[in-house]
Design brief:
This protein is of the alpha+beta class. It has helices spanning 2-27, 32-103, 112-132, 169-172, 218-226, 254-257, 299-331, 336-347, 365-404, 410-424, 428-445, 454-472, 497-507, 553-565, 595-607, and strands at residues 136-143, 155-159, 177-187, 190-202, 208-217, 233-237, 243-247, 267-272, 280-286, 292-298, 451-453, 476-482, 490-492, 514-523, 526-533, 571-576, 582-589. The chain has a five-stranded mixed sheet with strand order 2-1-5-4-3. Strands 7-6-10-9-8 form a five-stranded antiparallel sheet. Residues 397-476 form the Signal transduction histidine kinase internal region domain.
């Protein structure tokens, strides 16, 4: 087929030359120079526009992808730092709730000294939390019997009934603890935005007696999500999808952000297009506790570089076209005469392509063109004569390449060394496996022979099955029936083993036991090999072509080698029914001596 394709390509090339002569003859009747170069300039202009648009599209997409990847890595790192700080706040709250119960402050305590001591211990405990970290601005304690703390200190104590009046109470009403979204509180220095963490207080008897609120400075959280970058727009959402705080431009529509609440991926990016505002690139990262950090980047900021590149390319290209148009229009007249001579000769081109009458008085590029064309036409006959020999060499190289893919010589030496190590270590099973594998590779290598006696092929199969029996034990059984007169015949090396391997790996997958039967018999002038198993059978689409060649390498190799050696009607047939196993039939000619294959190969190629 490749020979036919090359011949067809040659005749197609010859036809193009003949057709081109008629086309150029038509062009001679018009103003060749101006029309040709004008059309060429128009074509280049259109091509430039298309190229600029493609350049813009590809670079903008690449910039968006690179931006998303960079922002994704940055958000993941910021999320890790944020989670550490948030977890520390939660741990502080938990430790404080336990210590408050231990202190056990009671405003009705009759012993004034003891009551004041416990009150002071409670204030010191809560104040120490605010002093230990700059993130916590103040702490609110809600209890049934409030007391008056230091007015200049970071602690505020309120009546427990006041909790129900807070606008954040529904967030913790049905929970023992919860993060409270950003709100504004009054401090000694004026209003301050904070994010709260509230925790209900229970005594050792499990009775609810108060609530603890840690007010975390929003600026500290914002510094965490800002990181080392400036001018970014980022938003922080808790596990329920509430916006806790944000930095930068927050003009993104809330209804569009709501779409991010349903995403299941821990991280990702999307191109968000809205009618109310310009497009944006959204990149998000989720923490293990499902807090989500989102960065919003205006799309126009990403594609500015692409637009500039497209404009520069368009400007330079148009300038080059204008300059090139005038230059080529001027020098086109210098090409008119030799082109006309070439067109005149091509219109008289003989069928066999000889070019004895080509002009020989040109010493410039056109002279080289004429001489090269003459030599090309003289070599066509030589190339046609060499196609047959080249086709034969190519087929032989393909067969050698397929054979070489299975036989890595160095593995045999490695197995021999491993066998000695196994014997020294007393690993009898491993030694037996390595010994069997050594026999397999010795037969597989066969001193580079592509054809081996059927007796050796049977030994190769038996070694493989014995190795499998070491792993399967009594659960794997096999029989090999062979016509004794067939043992001395020849077969392409490693023909049967891939099908047996397929039966064990795929046919017996998920099975507790399996049986394999190998039958070899002579049929007229041919020899038939049958491998039958009682496995799960082939999938319904096993013989459908796949998009990618994944798996089945050994079977494909055998089929391709048989096709390369013998061609139809010889080959492989596989039949199966679901749950009833698979039957593989390999039909080959009887080969008495190795030279038969070479003779058959030569006759086949000569016939084609």
């Amino acid at each position: 087929m490749k020979k036919v394709a090359k011949l067809a390509a040659f005749f197609q090339f010859h036809s193009i030359l003949r057709g081109g002569s008629a086309l150029f003859t038509m062009f001679k009747r018009v103003r060749i120079g101006r029309l040709f170069f004008g059309s060429f300039a128009a074509f280049i202009a259109v091509l430039l526009l298309v190229t600029s648009w493609i350049s813009y599209s590809l670079t903008s997409r690449e910039l968006a992808s690179n931006t998303a990847n960079y922002q994704q890595d940055l958000l993941n790192e910021l999320n890790k730092r944020l989670v550490i700080q948030l977890n520390s706040i939660e741990q502080m709250s938990l430790a404080a709730s336990r210590n408050i119960d231990i202190i056990g402050y009671d405003p009705l305590e009759s012993d004034l000294f003891e009551r004041n001591r416990r009150k002071q211990d409670l204030e010191n405990l809560l104040a120490s939390i605010t002093y230990s970290t700059t993130m916590v601005q103040s702490i609110y304690l809600y209890t049934e019997r409030p007391f008056m703390p230091d007015s200049q200190g970071p602690i505020r104590v309120y009546n427990l009934q006041k909790v129900r009046e807070e606008d954040w109470f529904p967030d913790i009403q049905n929970n023992d603890s919860a993060w409270i979204k950003e709100r504004t509180i009054q401090t000694n220095k004026g209003p301050l935005n904070v994010i709260g963490y509230a925790r209900k207080l229970y005594n050792n008897s499990g009775i609810y007696y108060g609530m603890l609120m840690l007010n975390v400075k929003s600026s500290e959280i914002q510094d965490l999500i800002r990181g080392e970058t400036e001018g970014r727009s980022r938003l922080l959402f808790d596990a329920s999808g509430r916006k806790m705080t944000s930095i930068g431009d927050q003009s993104l529509q809330v209804d569009e952000l709501d779409k991010l609440k349903v995403v299941t991926e821990k991280s990702g990016s999307t191109h968000l297009s809205t009618k109310q505002q310009s497009d944006s690139l959204l990149v998000w990262s989720k923490s293990p506790s499902n807090w989500m950090l989102v960065e919003v980047t205006p799309w126009k900021n990403i594609i500015n570089g692409s637009i500039r590149l497209a404009l520069i390319l368009l400007t330079v290209g148009l300038s080059a076209i204008i300059i090139g148009f005038f230059v080529t229009f001027f020098i086109s007249r210098q090409f008119t005469k030799p082109i006309r001579l070439l067109l005149a000769f091509m219109s008289k081109l003989p069928d066999r392509g000889f070019a004895a009458d080509l002009p020989q008085d040109y010493t410039n590029e056109f002279g080289n063109l004429f001489n090269g064309y003459r030599k090309q036409m003289e070599r066509i006959e030589e190339l046609l004569d060499s196609l047959k020999a080249q086709h034969k060499r190519q087929r032989e190289a393909e067969i050698q390449a397929l054979q070489a893919m299975i036989n890595p010589h160095f593995l045999y030496n490695t197995l021999d060394q491993l066998n000695w190590l196994a014997i020294d270590s007393g690993q009898d099973k491993i030694s037996k496996i390595l010994s069997l594998m050594g026999k397999m590779f010795r037969i597989g290598l066969s001193n580079g022979e592509t054809l081996i006696p059927i007796a050796d092929e049977i030994t190769h199969v038996e070694c493989y099955l014995q190795i499998q029996q070491i792993r399967w034990g009594d659960r794997l059984s096999f029989t090999i029936n062979v016509d004794e007169s067939a043992r001395e015949l020849y077969i392409p090396r490693l023909t049967l083993q891939p099908f047996i391997e397929n039966a064990i790996i795929h046919g017996f997958h998920g099975r507790k036991k399996g049986e394999i039967h190998v039958n070899i018999q002579l049929i007229n002038q041919d020899i038939q090999f049958q491998i039958e198993d009682d496995g799960v059978g082939l999938r319904p689409d096993w013989n459908q072509p796949k998009v990618r060649k994944t798996g089945g390498y050994g079977v494909r190799n055998v089929k391709e080698r048989i096709e390369a050696y013998f061609g139809p009607p010889y080959g492989v047939q596989m039949t199966s029914s679901k749950g009833n196993g698979t039957l593989v039939t390999v039909l080959l000619p009887q080969i008495q001596y190795k030279e038969q294959v070479e003779e058959r190969y030569y006759v086949e190629n000569t016939h084609h």
